[in-house]
Amino acid sequence: MAKNTSIKQLPDGYLDKTPIFQFILLSCLFALWGIPVSLNDILITQFKSIFNLSDFASALVQSAFYGGYFLIAIPASLIIKKTNYKIGIIIGLAVYILGCSLFYPASTMATYTMFLAAILAMAFGLSFLETASNTFSSMLGPKKYATLRLNISQNFQPFGAITGVLLGKYLIFQEGDSLHSQISKLNPEQLHAFRLQQLMLTLQPYKYIIIILAIVMVLFLITSYPNCKPTNTKENIVEKASFSETIGYLVRNVSFRNGIIAQFVYVGMQTAVWSFTIRLALELGAQNERDAANFMLYSFLCFFMGKFIANVFMTKFNPKLVLFIYSVIGTLTLLYITFASSFHAVYAAIFTSILMGPCWPTIFANNLEVVEKKYIEIAGAITVMSIVGGAVVPAIQGYVSDHLHSMQQAFIVSAICFAIVGIHFLREYLKHNKPAV
Fold first, then answer.
1. Rounded to whole angstroms, how far apart are CA atoms 362 and 323?
2. Tens digits of per-residue pLDDT, 120-142?
3. Are the C-beta atoms of residues 123 and 70 closer than 8 Å to each other?
4. Torsions phi, psi for 52 (to 5 deg)
5. What is the DSSP string of 3-63?
6. What is the pTM of this model?
7. Predicted pLDDT at 436
8. Is residue 270 over pLDDT 90?
9. Topology of domain 20-230+242-429, per CATH?
10. Domain boundaries of the chain, sorted by first residue
């Protein structure tokens, strides 16, 4: 596909205009990693019953997923730095396909560890995609609209998340009684056959994902993209920084460091809320997993709607102030979930998703803005690595649930995390909007 010669790359790596087709194709990747994110929430519930896991052990699905992001983000960033964003995306798509393919042997072997290995491999590919795509989206046009572009791209993610829930609801979850109720009525021989049958169902969504990924990979292979890398010109001399120098600089950068902490607890909170919404609904009276999956569908619809609402607010008011207010409301909502005495707690969990949408892209874009250009690739990778919070916080919430014997009360963990996010946004707002003396 021919390059758009009317669009010029500026010395700082940004473009003077946004190439529409390339930007839309890039934004579609955000939907493609939204699918496995929501499917993980389905798998947590499925594996808990089939493998008879504790809440902590079932949360290891997220630990494998986000742990994969953490392990591969720096290597991915170094490869992208030496090549370009497009190559990073193609590598990510290829490894993503490989990870999905591992669900075939996992379903046959019927062991929890093999499923975790497949999820880990899939996350390696997704880490390449996110490391490349988040930064690439922010740079694919004029610099002043970098945060807006990233937020627009992030708006594609809920479409993928909704698709993942629908795939899980209709291809994995079945009608009838809950899995726990069905399993309790089976003898050992029937139970073994039932478990094998249910595990084979987990393979079904990934067959379709592989086909979609193959089509998208072909489109990227034939589509031309600008490098969006700063050039060494008189107007824009960019020095090369070593890895150790970059890490030292980022550690000393207080705004960047605080942003990493905020991203860690935010992603952990978001992942924990979504991981255990189905479990919360079942605990409070939902009939079965398929019915409970509807609440995840509503959550992602709210997440999608919340992004648009937040974009409107952030164009009229200071984004950091908006997100501080969102965090306060979110913390109070999660506290209500923890202590409510009715099924309304599930609806509160759904409402929380409205408040989540703008946090990740805003923190990510702000982290790139506060670092020098020669450190930007590693800074982007470390920000992606911070989503390892999604591996840690759900496990903590699962552990608390096991010890309190209540998933509902364990939502206090998520409430604490949202409060920490709010403190970060308040601190950043006050730093840049000090009252006149």
1. 9
2. 999 999 989 988 888 888 888 88
3. no
4. 55, 55
5. --TT--B-TTS-BSS--HHHHHHHHHHHHHHHHHHHHHHHHHHHHHHHTT--HHHHTHHHH
6. 0.82
7. 46
8. yes
9. Growth Hormone; Chain: A; (1.20.1250)
10. 20-230+242-429
